[in-house]
Amino acid sequence: MKIIAFFNNKGGVGKTSLVYHLAWMYADLGLTVLAADLDPQANLSAMFLEEDRLQELWPDGLHPDTLLGVIQPIFKGTGDIQSPHLETVEADGRCLDLLVGDLGLSSFEDKLSDAWPRCLDADEAAFRTISAFYRALLAAAQSQEADLILVDVGPNLGAINRAAILAAHHVVIPLAPDLFSLQGLRNLGPTFRNWRSGWEERLEKNPAPELPLPAPEMQPAGYVVMQHAVRLDRPVQSYARWMEQIPTEYREAVLGQAAEEAIRGVNDPHCLASLKRCPSLMLMAQEARKPIFLLRPADGAIGSHAAAVQDCYQDFRTLALRIADRCGIPVALPGRG
Questions:
Q1: Strand 87-91 and strand 271-275: pairing?
Q2: Topology classification of domain 2-327
Q3: Are 143 and 86 in contact (CB under 8 A)?
Q4: pLDDT tens-digit series, residues 242-274
Q5: Spatial distance between the Cα atoms of 63 and 60, rounded to a whole number of angstroms
Q6: What is d(CA 64, CA 224) in angstroms, rounded to the nearest whole number?
Q7: pLDDT digits (tens, 9 = 90+) for 182-201
Q8: Is 25:317 a contact under the CB 8 Å cutoff?
Q9: Taking the CB of the first residue and of the last residue of the chain, which one, N or C, has fewer CB atoms within 10 A?
């Protein structure tokens, strides 16, 4: 079982939509998939679930059926993680499970910040706090015998995301071809290395050998460029200019390697895909509660939209297989149903 986190400290790059569509694509490919919403904004949960169901999961008071409910005993200092509840979601005969997010997760930030330095003092409670997300993901995966977990996290470099990224075997970085994503890469690389080295140091202090803790992996699997729609005030040439700079920035900032040669855009082996955004199809998909590539004529995908749906299917299938290959996930390649 592999845990793959999708992360960029720059928001608005299409990260949550990417996780949503890849989760459905892996389900289409026959894998047992768990999507985990570790973003306190809970946008992934809102993409998967109807508002009425979310209202049931987020009542006044306790939220036992969300991720917040799983870690609530640690947050309150009354115990350890609870068994996670998973929501099963379906679309056109495919199904997967969701570990539901919660806006209340933001209150866990201070607890995680406080636990990080206390791990250096061999404080078992601190280790249980830092590993709470990881152990919740493990428990959820074991309950469903999941092949992989796709994790959505928020756009910041805070303690919640540190705990979420430490739980991951691999990290995929969604980008937009703009200055902000380049700056984001410059922040991410040093931060990843600091988190990894800091966790390695703390693991040596672990006083509870029986406690399941994540290894310091969080290996970069590559990046995905989420193309903007063309705007009159942002000509296509400007996007090409940023695209040309991404490979060098990724190597230097994220991998800590010198860029020995000029590699441009999608020719970069670390570029997993360059995906077009389809706003009209996205609205249609949200209405139908399914990914774009499963839209049918009954959903309104006719004419040129039908062709775009087929293109989207091939794009996400190719991306899913490429990520699986990078992360060591076996895929049997069934035909499309």
A1: unpaired
A2: Rossmann fold (3.40.50)
A3: yes
A4: 888 899 899 999 998 876 665 655 678 999 999
A5: 8
A6: 34
A7: 888 888 989 999 999 999 99
A8: yes
A9: C
